[in-house]
Amino acid sequence: MTGLRKHLLGLAALGLAVAGPLPALADFPEEPINIIVGFGAGGGVDTVSRSAAAALSEVLGQPVNIRNQPGAGGALAVTALQAMPADGYNTVATTSTTLTFDPHTQDLSFDVDGFEYLAAFGVFPEALIALPDRGWTTLADTVAEAKEKGEPFSYASTTSVDTVVVASVAAKEGVTFNPIPTKGGAEAVAQTLGGHVDFAYSSGTYYAQAEAGNLQVLAVLGEERIEGFPDAPTLLDLGYDTSSMNMVLFLVQKDVPDDVKAKLAEAFAAAAKDERLLETLKTRNMGAFVPVGEDIAKLIHKQSDQFKAAIEATK
């Protein structure tokens, strides 16, 4: 071996000795993960997210923290996510309609194509309800009476989603259903029980009153009938080409590295089977619908297309 070669090898060995061993490649996650909840503490999205966080933490081996950032129907949290590093350490939990409906009706900085969808846990039991003494078994009876009387009916409205869905039904049937804005589900139910409106939309507050027989479920807005009310048809059952399937949706930025997205997808798939999460969904009457990965991505895009068509039909 030449002297020059010995000298170079000696320098290399010295460099390695000084620098120490090469660091191992990072194994995600190396630090706590945040779920940014687009709604306030105590609501459905927050409660489901906290149950999911407990299961996710066990799978990922890191704390999963909840940060509430309510505002603009969940859109504030989604907008904030866009400005964060796309490293998988921040995810957003919001309602699915924040992505499937709101971009069609508001000037937002995002749309349904801008994110990767990890999972959706539970379905809010959205329905149209009325007093039993109206004599209506389903929404078909409501429509029939509206046609017979030839006069507008009023309904308690709580979201821009229900106004579009109900308007699309009314447009198809040639009747008029006038929305009466309320501050939320509790007020909508109270307006119905007090006889101040003909019927109402509710995302789930009605459930206990309907179970007690004080309210009649006329139609379910989701794609499946609601547990506890097997005779209440969906809008699809009644022949309408629209539905509103509002879920607790978890998402990350589109450009999160593939290996990180795969790790998160695995964790959410495991969390979907967690008994604590399933019990939370049951307690809140949200069923056990827990699609993950490609299943939820396809459903979210399908819902977005349906809402777009419904909005166009009401113009």
Q: How much helix, percentage-wise, in residues?
A: 40-55%
Instruction: Count the beta strands.
Output: 10
Shape: elongated
Secondary-structure class = alpha/beta
Largest sheet: 5 strands, mixed
CATH structural architecture of the largest domain:
3-Layer(aba) Sandwich
How far apart the termini lie comes to 85 Å
CATH class placement of the largest domain: Alpha Beta
Percent strand: 15-25%
The strand line-up of the biggest sheet is: 2-1-3-10-4
What is the H/E string? Answer: HEHEHEHHEEHEHEHEHEEHHH
Work out the count of structural domains.
Answer: 2
Reported by name, the CATH topology of the largest domain is D-Maltodextrin-Binding Protein, domain 2
Overall mean pLDDT: 90
Total helix count?
12
CATH superfamily of the largest domain: Bordetella uptake gene, domain 1
Structure characterization notes:
By secondary structure, the chain is of the alpha/beta class. The chain contains 12 helices and 10 strands. Strands 2-1-3-10-4 form a 5-stranded mixed beta sheet, sandwiched between helices. Helix 7 (160-173) links the parallel strand 6 and strand 7 (177-181). Helix 2 (44-60) packs across helix 10. It is elongated, with a radius of gyration of 25 Å.
